[in-house]
C-alpha cells in the first residue's frame, strides 16, 4: 500500500506532507513520557509487519497493523508510523521520501479513527470486545485502501475503479488484520491491560489484586 | 494461564515469519538489457513475484514516448530498439506501484557496432591499398578474419553473459536483508532513547 515515488502530482504530495506534519505535531504533544517505549515498540512492529506478506491477490498485500497500533496509541500513531515509514523508505526503498507525507496519512488517519471508534469497547466483556478488535483491524485497512484510492484519484483513473481494486486486493489482509487484532488485544487484556486505552485507575487496582491472587494460586 | 497465551502468541508470530516466503509486495522493480537489436527485460515485486500483464512505457530521455507494451505471464517483456537513443523504461504495476530502468546510449551503440561487424564486408577486399597488394591473400584474410572473429566472440559472449545479466537482474531485485531489518529496529529504539533523554531533561529544568 506504499505509493511509489513519481506517481503523484506535486499538490497531492504537498497536501500529504502538510497534513502529516500536523498529525505528527498533535501526536508528539500527546506523547507522555511513560508512553515513549510503547510507541517505539509498536513503531518497530509496524516497521517489520510490512515484511510479512499474505500470499493472495494480484498485488501487494502485507500486514499493516495500523489498526492495532492506533487502538493502543491514539494520536501518537502519527509519529510512530511516520518514523517506521521513513525507515522503510530509506532502508527497503518501499514507498519513497517525497511520498512519505501521503503514505503517513494513508496509514495513520485510519489508525486514529479506529482509536476513537473502538477504544471504548476494548474493556467490555468477551464477544463485544472481540468484535470491536476485529472491526478495528478490518476497518483500518479498509479506510487505508479508500485513502489510497483518493490519493491516486488525482493522478490516475477514476476513484471508484482504483479504490475498488485496492479494496479487493486487501480483503484477505483485512480479515487477517482483524484476527491479529483479536489475538493481540486478547493477549494484552490478560497480561497487561493498562497498555490498552481508556483504562481507569480503579480497574488497575482490581487487576493488580487479581494478578497477585493468581500468582499465589500458581505458587 | 499466561503461558498458554504466550504460546499462542508466539505461534502466531512464528506462523507469520514462516509464511513470509511466497510473497506479494510493495516494491516493484524492472530491469532491462540489450541483446542484439531487441531490448529484453523482466520485472518483479519484491519477494520475487512476477509482475504479470502490466504496462511498460518506453520514453526517450527528453520525455517523448517511444512505445508501449505489456509484460507477459512470466513478468518478462521485449521489444525491438525503437530508436537510437537512450531509453527510460517505465513499468506501471497499478495501485501506486511504479518502477523505471534506464538504458544508456552506449549500450545501444555497442550492439549496433556488433551488428555491423556481423555483416560480411564484401567491398573491404577492394579497399586494400597497393602496399598490401603484395600479399593479397593475407590482406583479405585479415579483414575477413576480423569480421569472423568478432562475430564469433560476440556470439560466445552473449551466451556467457546472458546468465550473468540475469543474475544481476536478480540482485537488483532482492528484498530487504536481515541487516536492514535489524538496523531499522535499532534506529527506532535509538530514537526512543533520544526522545526519553529530551523528555527527562525537560522535566529536570
Please provide a written account of the structure:
The complex is a heterodimer of chains A (219) and B (205). By secondary structure, chain A is mainly alpha-helical. In chain A, 72% of the residues lie in helices and 0% in strands. Chain A is built from 8 helices and no strands. In chain A, helix 2 packs across helix 4 (77-92) and helix 5 (100-118) packs antiparallel against helix 6 (126-153). Chain A starts with 9 loop residues before the first helix and ends with a helix. In chain A, 49% of the residues are buried. Chain B is an alpha+beta fold. Chain B has a domain at 178-205. In chain B, the strands form 2 sheets. A 4-stranded antiparallel β-sheet of chain B has the order 4-3-6-7. In chain B, strands 1-2-5 form a 3-stranded antiparallel β-sheet. In chain B, strand 3 (55-60) and strand 4 (65-70) form a beta hairpin. Chain B starts with a helix and ends with a helix. Mean pLDDT of chain B is 73; it is low at 17-25 and 123-128. At the A-B interface, helix 2, helix 4, helix 6 and helix 7 of A face helix 1, strand 7 and helix 6 of B.
Question: Which descriptors apply to this entry?
Answer:
heterodimer; A: 219 residues; mainly alpha; B: alpha+beta; 6 helices
Short description:
The complex is a heterodimer of chains A (219) and B (205). Chain A has 219 residues and is mainly α. Chain A has eight helices and no strands.
Amino acid at each position: 500500500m506504499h505509493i511509489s515515488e513519481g506517481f503523484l502530482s506535486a499538490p497531492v504530495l504537498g497536501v500529504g506532507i502538510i497534513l502529516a506534519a500536523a498529525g505528527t505535531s498533535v501526536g508528539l504533544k500527546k506523547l507522555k513520557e511513560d508512553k515513549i517505549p510503547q510507541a517505539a515498540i509498536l513503531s518497530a512492529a509496524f516497521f517489520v509487519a510490512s515484511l510479512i506478506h499474505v500470499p493472495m491477490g494480484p498485488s501487494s498485500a502485507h500486514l499493516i497493523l495500523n489498526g492495532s497500533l492506533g487502538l493502543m496509541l491514539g494520536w501518537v500513531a502519527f509519529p510512530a508510523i511516520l518514523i517506521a515509514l521513513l525507515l522503510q523508505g530509506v532502508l527497503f526503498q518501499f514507498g519513497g521520501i517525497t511520498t512519505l507525507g501521503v503514505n503517513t496519512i494513508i496509514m495513520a488517519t485510519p489508525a486514529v479513527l479506529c482509536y476513537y471508534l473502538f477504544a471504548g469497547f476494548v474493556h467490555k466483556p468477551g464477544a463485544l470486545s472481540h468484535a470491536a478488535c476485529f472491526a478495528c483491524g478490518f476497518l483500518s485497512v479498509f479506510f487505508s485502501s479508500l485513502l489510497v484510492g483518493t490519493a491516486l484519484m488525482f493522478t490516475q483513473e477514476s476513484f471508484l475503479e482504483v479504490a475498488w481494486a485496492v479494496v479487493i486486493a486487501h480483503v484477505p489482509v483485512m480479515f487477517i488484520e482483524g484476527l491479529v487484532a483479536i489475538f493481540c488485544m486478547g493477549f494484552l487484556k490478560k497480561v497487561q491491560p493498562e497498555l490498552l486505552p481508556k483504562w481507569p485507575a480503579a480497574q488497575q487496582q482490581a487487576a493488580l489484586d487479581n494478578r497477585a491472587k493468581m500468582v499465589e494460586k500458581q505458587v | 494461564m499466561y503461558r498458554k497465551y504466550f504460546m499462542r502468541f508466539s505461534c502466531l508470530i512464528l506462523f507469520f515469519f514462516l509464511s513470509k516466503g511466497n510473497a506479494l509486495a510493495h516494491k516493484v522493480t524492472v530491469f532491462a538489457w540489450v541483446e542484439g537489436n531487441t531490448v529484453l527485460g523482466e520485472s518483479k515485486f519484491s519477494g520475487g513475484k512476477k509482475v504479470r500483464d502490466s504496462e511498460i512505457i518506453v520514453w526517450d530521455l527528453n520525455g517523448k514516448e517511444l512505445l508501449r507494451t505489456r509484460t507477459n505471464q512470466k513478468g518478462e517483456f521485449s521489444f525491438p530498439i525503437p530508436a537510437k537513443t537512450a531509453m527510460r523504461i517505465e513499468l506501471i504495476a497499478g495501485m501506486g506501484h511504479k518502477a523505471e530502468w534506464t538504458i544508456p546510449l552506449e549500450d545501444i551503440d555497442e550492439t549496433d557496432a556488433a551488428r555491423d561487424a556481423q555483416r560480411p564486408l564484401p567491398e573491404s577486399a577492394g579497399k586494400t591499398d597497393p602496399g598490401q597488394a603484395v600479399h593479397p591473400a593475407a590482406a583479405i584474410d585479415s579483414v575477413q578474419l576480423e569480421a569472423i572473429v568478432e562475430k564469433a566472440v560476440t556470439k560466445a559472449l552473449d551466451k556467457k553473459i546472458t546468465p550473468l545479466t540475469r543474475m544481476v537482474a536478480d540482485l537488483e531485485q532482492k528484498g530487504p536483508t536481515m541487516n536492514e531489518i535489524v538496523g531499522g529496529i535499532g534506529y527506532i529504539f535509538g530514537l526512543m532513547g533520544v526522545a526519553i533523554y529530551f523528555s527527562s531533561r525537560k522535566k529536570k529544568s
